[in-house]
Structures are given as structure tokens and as C-alpha cells.
Amino acid sequence: MGSQLEQLENNVAKLRIEVDAAAFEEAIKKAYRKNVKKFRVPGFRVGKVPQHIVEQYYGESVFYEDAIDDVFPDAYSKAIEENDLTPVDLPQIDIVQIGKGKDLILSADVTVKPEVTLGEYKGIQVKRPVYNVTDEDVEKELEDLRQKNARLIAVEDRASQEGDTVTVDYTGYLDGQEFEGGKAEDQVIELGQGRFIPGFEEQLVGMRVGENKEFNIVFPEDYGNNDLAGKEVTFSVTMKEIKYKELPELDDEFAKDVSEFDTLEELRQSIRERLENEAAQQTQSALENAVIAKVTENSSVDIPDVMVERELDDVLQELDYNLQYNGLSLDIYLQITNTSKEALREQYKDVAHNRLKSRMVLEKIGQVENIEVSPEEVDEEIKKRAEQMNVDVEQYKQRINPSFIEETLRMDKIISFLIENAVVEDVEEDGQADTSEDEA
């Protein structure tokens, strides 16, 4: 049993794998014993037909497929190990030689993990955005908190105005016919937020409770539903309720009501500290992303399509998870955006490719620089995560894959190494940091 690497081009290795005649003959006998009860030959009881009779009756090759299935996995694994290959897909197999008393010779085309050619990764120049939290940022957070804790008071003696929260029934008509998704009852709308199609909320300003109003609206040209994009429709709206916000006073009592603090000044200080922590995290994240982007740009790797497609599967699975977390699903998202799954895959293909390339470049840097993670570091991280989740360490170990923790720590070390060896220029940024999560 042996193997030979015949060629390696475009990340596809061609292996010649040989299984000696004796081993293949034993696999044929094993296949016979496994399948003998399936064969029917006149003059013989079921399960008692001799092997050579079965081969005469059904053909010499009757057991070849099962025999190959038996010997190939071990022969293939040894060939991969002998030639130091890392497959990323199942091999394509061709039979070169097969027959009684002959060595089995197979040819396997194997798509393998590509080699990364590193560019400059030490001394790279990157910019680090520095966000300063201002008094205005703190006051804006306080005002948002005040808005969230406002009381809604019903209005009877005046028309609706911007800032009011109204409840309406509406029906939309296209060419005189109701269109799908154009009807709602008890729809709550905060006027001035711009969450409906342009012009819709403006038409509700000035209406009174019980009033019905009809008006025309043109859907935007880039609207997600092609049947409505750029079309003029008619809406019939009935105003059912108008409420205005009664905002609480910003004082110590407000602080007690909305937080664990006794004074407004303590609440202000807590908000400032939170914003400063978020700004620091945003700054660090931006620096890490800049370093990763730079070393990825400087390096090259020819990634096989099969690897990109699998990474794309992961990207879309994460998208689906995030949508479900927000009460949607991938199918509903596709309907809302009027997008097919094929178009969505094409849309995210570059994201998958770039993410995969970045990870491979970081892995290569880790190999070159001998950046490793010790078992003690993995155990310490597991212990820390278990404490954060308030669960027993041993129970947590059963729920997670330690190799995932190890890989996460290794990537963190590699990124820290790159930052330590980078030339970082701080750049002052205006305004509060955007603390929303980056897209995966």
C-alpha cells in the first residue's frame, strides 16, 4: 500500500493511491461475507452460494465497489498524511487499475487548503480613532432616557401634530384594488419618526380623532416590492386615537425611578462612565479591524471556491440567527427585501471571501511567529466564562468545545502581536462612538 503525489495545481492535488493485491483480495472476501445473503443463484440455498459462483453468475466485479469502500478510507488517510496535504473537500476518485490478482490503483483529485503568501505585517501603519465623550453626549443619553419614560396622554380637543403618537386604521389601493401588505388596524405611529414611506406620516398631521382621510402617495423607486416601486397608490386612513408625551422632570426623583442611583448627578456620572467604556471598546475594535484589514490586503492567497461557499453558508447562518434574535427569519427577510436566496448569496460572497482570507492570513502569521495557547490559558478562559455565566465549570466544559476556546485565544494573541508591532496614529473623532455591533 502506497501513494504518490503526481501534481499539484490550482489547489488541486492528484494522488496515485495503490493497494496491494492481497489486501484488495481480502476486502473482496469481506464484501462477499457481508452481502452473500443478497444473492440468488439456482441450485444454492440463500446465503450458501460460494464466492466464485457468485462472481461467475453476477460478474467478477460484483464485489469491487464494496471492497473499494472498505480499503479506500485508510489508504486515503495515509496518502494525505504521507504527502502533508490538508483537504478542504471530498476527493474525486477514478479507477486506474482493478482486477483479480492485481494491485488496486486509484487516482484521487483532492482540493487542498491553499498556501498563504504573507506580505508586510510588522511595522504596518494604521490609524486609531479616539472618541471623546462630551457633556452633550451625556445629556443626549439622559434625554433619550427621559423620552423612554414619558407618559402618553390621550388628546381629544386638538388635531394631531408632529411628536404625537397616533393609532390609525388604513387601507392602501393600487389601481383601485387593495394591495398585499397595504392594510392595517390599530397601527401605532409616532409622527415625525419617518418609519413609513415618505409622505405618509406628514398626511396624518392635522387629523382629529374619528376623522377619515384619503390621499395619494408615490412609493420610492428603490422600494423593496417591485410591484409597488415607483407606483402611485391611494390610502384611506381613519384616526382612532391621539396621544402626546408628558416628559418627566430631570431631577433626583427621576434618577431614583429609572436607576439604582439616588441623585441625578450620580446617574449622569454612571452614563458618562458607560459611554467612555463603550468609546474605548469601539476604539479598540476599530484598531483591531484596521490591523487585520492591512495585513490581509498585504497578503495573497488563492482560495478554492468550495471553501468560499462553505464560509458563505456560515455567514448566512449567522445572518439567519441574528434575524431570528430580532423576531424575523431569513425567509421573511427575503420577502421584505424582495431578494432571492441566490441573489443574497451573491451579495454576501465578498464578505465570506474577505472573512476567510483574513482568518487564513492570521493563522499563517501565528504559525510563522510560533504563537501558541497553553492548556492552562484555555482552562483559565473556560473558568472565567463559567463564572460570568454563573455556571459550574465542569458543566460548562461539557457544553463547549475547548478547541474553539483555544482558537479564539490564539486569534486574540495574534491580533495583539500585530498591534504591538504596528505604527499606530491616534486620530481624534468628532461625536460619540457608534457602539452598534459590527456586521459579521
Automatic annotation (TrEMBL):
The keyword RNA-binding does not apply. Its main location: cytoplasm. Gene3D superfamilies: 3.10.50.40, Trigger factor ribosome-binding domain (3.30.70.1050), Trigger factor, C-terminal domain (1.10.3120.10). GO terms for biological process: 'de novo' cotranslational protein folding; cell division; protein transport; protein unfolding. It comes from the Bacteria. Residues 163-248 form the PPIase FKBP-type domain. GO terms for molecular function: peptidyl-prolyl cis-trans isomerase activity; protein folding chaperone; ribosome binding. It is found in: Cytoplasm. Keywords: Cell cycle, Cell division, Chaperone, Coiled coil, Cytoplasm, Isomerase, Rotamase. Its EC number is 5.2.1.8. PROSITE patterns: FKBP_PPIASE. One of its GO terms (cellular component) is cytoplasm. It catalyses: [protein]-peptidylproline (omega=180) = [protein]-peptidylproline (omega=0). The keyword Protein biosynthesis does not apply. Residues 135-162 form a coiled coil. Belongs to the FKBP-type PPIase family. Tig subfamily. Consists of 3 domains; the N-terminus binds the ribosome, the middle domain has PPIase activity, while the C-terminus has intrinsic chaperone activity on its own. Involved in protein export. Acts as a chaperone by maintaining the newly synthesized protein in an open conformation. Functions as a peptidyl-prolyl cis-trans isomerase. HAMAP family: Trigger_factor_Tig. This is Trigger factor. It comes from Mahella australiensis (strain DSM 15567 / CIP 107919 / 50-1 BON). The gene is tig.
